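Researcher: Re-running this chain for the archive, since the previous output was lost when a drive failed. Same request as before.
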Amino acid sequence: MTLTPSSSGALAGVRILDMATVLAAPSGATLCADHGADVVKLELPDGSDALRHMQPIKDGSPLWWKVANRGKRGITLDVRKEQGRRILLSMLPRFDVLVENFRSGSMDRWGLDIETLHRANPRLIVVRLTGFGQTGPYRSRAGFARVFEAMSGFTNLTGEAGGSPLHSNFPLGDSIAGIFCAFTIAAEVARLRGNPKLPGAEVDLAATEALFRMLDPLPVEHEQLGQVRRAAGNRTTYTSPSNMYRSKDGVYFSLVASSQAVYVRLCNAVGKPEWITDPRFDTLPKRVQNMDALDGALAQWFVSHAFADICAQLEPHEIPFTKVYDIEDIKADPHFQARNAIIRLPDPDHGSLPAPCIVPRVVGRDMPAPRSGPSVGEHNAEVYAEFGITADQLEELREQRVI
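Model: Regenerated C-alpha cells:
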C-alpha cells in the first residue's frame, strides 16, 4: 500500500529516516509524521524490533507497533553489513534527519560515525536518543524507561509516603523523551530552513535528562531549602487540598483547589463555610501545613456521599475535579467525542485501528488521519525505487539478507 505523507502539516517536505528501535526515539519521529514529515522506518530484515513482540498482539498482529509507528513507510536494511552501510550512505543525501537510539559507539563500530554521516550529507540532522547520552561514565549502558524514570528522580515522587516507590503501567519516560525528540527535530529543521550555508547537527539527547528536565523544582528546593521531595501518595506537598478521594459508592476522583478563590467555593459547595476562616486553613501556606486535618475532613464528607451527589454539589461551584478515567470512560465522554480525540488509522489487516488524535490542532488546517505502522519491509520496493534500486537488485539483496 502506497503511503502519501500529509502535505498540510508544518513539517511537510521534511524527510526523516527513523532507524531507532522500540519506543522513545520512534515516537518522536511519529509525532513529526503526524505533522506532515515523510518518515521512513528502517528495520533489520528479521523484524526483531522488540515493540513488534510486546502486548497487545492479536492473531500475530502487533497492535502497539501499528499505532506507535503510524504514518511511516517501512523498509528493511542491515546497516551492520558492508553493502547495507553503502546503501544507507547513498540514501542520506535525500534525507534531512536521521534518528537513532543505539548504544553509544554502536554506529561508529558499523562504520557510520558522525564524520562519515556528514560526508554523505553535510546538512544532515542526526538525533541520537539514548538513555544516558553520548558522554559520561554511563554512556554505554542500555536505556529502558523504568531505569531512567527511576534515575531521573521521577519515580521517587510516586507511591505512598513511607512506602515503595511506584512505576506506572506505561513507559512514560519513553514518551517524554519522544516529545523532546520531536521538538529537537522541529527546532533544528527551523534553524536550517532558509540558510543553505548552515551545516547539519549532531544532537545528543539523553532520555534521563529529558525526564529530569521536567522536574524543575527538585534542584532549587534542595539547594535553597535543604528539601528532598518524596512520594506523598495522591497528595501534592506544594498545595492543598489536592488529593484523590473516594465516594460512598466507590468512585475514585481527583480534586484540586489550589487558589484561594477555588478553596472558598469548595468550602461553600460542601456546606462548610466555617473552613474559610478557620485559622488552620485560611491561607494556602496554612492549608499545606495542616493538610492532614483538611484532607481528613474532606475525605469524611466525600465518603458519605454518592458520586452523583458530589457532582451535583461541586459542578455549580466550578470546582476542578474528575472521576479517574479508564479507556471506556474516555470513549464515552461527550467532550472527547465532540473533539474526535480518538481517530481511526487505516490499516491493511484490520480495516482501521483506533488511536489518539493528532496533537496539537491547528485551527483551519485539515490533518488527515495517518495510516497505521508498516509491516516489516512493506515499502521496500516503493522507497528503494526512489533511489534507483531495481526489483532484480532488491531480490539479490534479499538473498544476501541485506534487506
